[in-house]
Amino acid sequence: MSKSSRPVISGRKGVIAAGHFLASAAGTKMLALGGNAVDAGVAAGFALTVLKPTENSMGGECPMLIYSPKDMKVFSISGQGVSPKKATPQWFSDNGIDMIPGDGYLGATVPGLFGAYCTALSRFGRLSLAEVLGPAIELAEEGYPVYERMSATIASLSKRFTEEWPSSAAIFMPGGKPPAAGQILKQPALAKTFRRILDAAGAGGGREDSIARGMNYYYDEIADDILEFTKSFPVRDASGKKHVPLLEKEDFTGYATRVEEPVYTQYRNYEVFKCGTWTQGPVFLQQLKLLEGYALGDMRHNSAEYMHIVVECAKLAFDDREKYYGDPLFSDIPMDMLLSEPYNQKRRQGIDPAKANNDKLWEENIRLNDCGCDCDTTHLDVMDSEGFMMSATPSGGWIPSSPVIPKVGFALGTRGQMFVLDEGHPNVIAPGKRPRATLTPTLAFKDGTPLMVFGTPGGDCQDQWALQFFLNIADYNMDLQQAIDKPSFHTFHFKNSFYPKEAVIGKVFIEKDACLDEMMKLQNMGHILNLLEPASNGQVCAVQRNRSTGAIEGAASAKGDGQAYAMGW
Q1: First to last CA, the chain
Q2: How crowded is residue 244: how many other Cβ atoms within 10 Å of its Cβ?
Q3: For residue 377, what are the contacts with CB-CB under 8 A and spacing of at least 6?
Q4: Amino acid 569: pLDDT
Q5: Contact in structure between 82 and 26 (CB atoms under 8 Å)
Q6: What sign results for the dihedral spanned by CA atoms 135, 560, 118, 53?
Q7: Left if phi > 0, otherwise alpha if psi is -120 to 50, otherwise beta: which for 289?
Q8: What is the structure's pLDDT at 276?
């Protein structure tokens, strides 16, 4: 087995792995205060809104999965906001728009991230809102060193910030130029927003009441600030047209975070949980059901045979995602069928073990684009000695797509771009509906016992890279870091979830430190290879309980700024 890029981190009281090491440190502080994994995860999540503004913010969304040992149950928290009441296919048609743009305001849904964190904290945590917001406030007020990816992203946005979005330039281009890596960046407006929320939350009436007051203030007073700016400051989208958002105050005040049953399936002796079809999460599960028909452990890891089967199963599962997925509150999603053995056995019959299927899997004419998969999202996982587990994928409200709102210090999201405008489709836009997002945390049991939480940023690739990580453990017995470090691959043989929703028919994007001989064999099967630099794909985080030692273990990809931290031994 090849040497890992970094060691697996072990602890007794708790371990957290997050997309930035300072977020992991924030979570560890909560464990030291006597908090549980959910307190730690929420604190890390709030810290990430400060540390990763190019990837998530208080204007974004955050689906999560939580295992509660008290309830002995897995819960799905819908941190995905809903579409405005004005948002209908007819409105877009009347305004000459045939696809919801990926920047500007028209893709804005009600921000769901803050409500999700507050709901998780109130229901499953034990610390106060002030305690879990403490590290985020400190980071926003005192600042933190800009990292290379953030510096490069802001540099790429400098022209737009300067010419179109001066409110973004005021925060993220101090002195009129992009910050260099290592420069200390402060976000005073965001810090003030946190403090305003805490002032409204107060301390009287109990912890849950305080959290509820903070949440109500966000969806009332903070919403007023959001609407005041965005309604008076139209921005152009990709077509060059300027718009104000469709959101109105009643969209905010009428919003409520949902706590739901997760979707799950068996894979060998594992039970894997995902959020529902308002995310792409169940596509991970269908890939497992398709792959269950193959003896993967008998194949050499990352052999041409293995990669071929994984890619071909992905094509089928993502094809079903495009046909069937949407908000289950609005459409009857045939999940039982999609995860059934008879259905997947029939789908497997379409896989040629020696030849790639490079035919289109749907009827529309789709533009081609040789694109990779960006990581404009982040992730966190945490587990404690009591047995609480949390996996969350924060995203949206990022600064490349929408201007910063001066009074609040963050931008609105654009997740509505994932809706379609085709009447009758399960994912067609409708008032108060959740778009089928790509965000997809994961929680797994083994032999009926809670085992692991994991995930990665990466848009449509999330449930391909995270799947390969999981297979590395389930079928190849790797440790967490080895499973993260192995070269990975993905396909875009389906319609991309993001505007302009392109596809790349027949291509496999693969990190070029995979075995050259196996890549040549894969190409001879008919796959069109696009080689990526080593360590290009994803930023997987994972935490698990070692069933032999009882220790909690964590690991994070060395590809970004993520790090696992442990508490106590």
Answers
A1: 28
A2: 16
A3: 55, 56, 393, 394, 395, 396, 438, 439, 457, 458, 459, 462
A4: 64
A5: no
A6: positive
A7: alpha
A8: 98
Whether residues 249 and 269 share a domain: the answer is no
**Residue range 337-353, pLDDT digits in tens:** 999 999 999 999 999 99
* Structural domain containing residue 320: 263-374+439-567
- What distance lies between CA 83 and its chain's CA centroid? 19
Distance CA 284, CA 467 (A): 7
Task: Give pLDDT, residue 362.
Answer: 40
In a domain? residue 428? no
SS3 510: strand
Query: What count of other Cβ atoms lies within 10 Å of the Cβ of residue 106?
Result: 24
Q: Going by C-beta distance under 8 Å and a sequence separation of 6 or more, which residues neighbour residue 517?
A: none
Q: What is the DSSP string of 304-344?
A: HHHHHHHHHHHHHHHHHHHHH-S-TTTS---HHHHT-HHHH
Q: Are residues 367 and 483 in the same domain?
A: yes
Q: What is the pLDDT of residue 49?
A: 98
Do 230 and 337 reside in the same domain of the chain? Answer: no
> Per-residue confidence at 365, pLDDT binned at 50, 70, 90?
very low
CATH of the domain at 490: 3.60.20.40
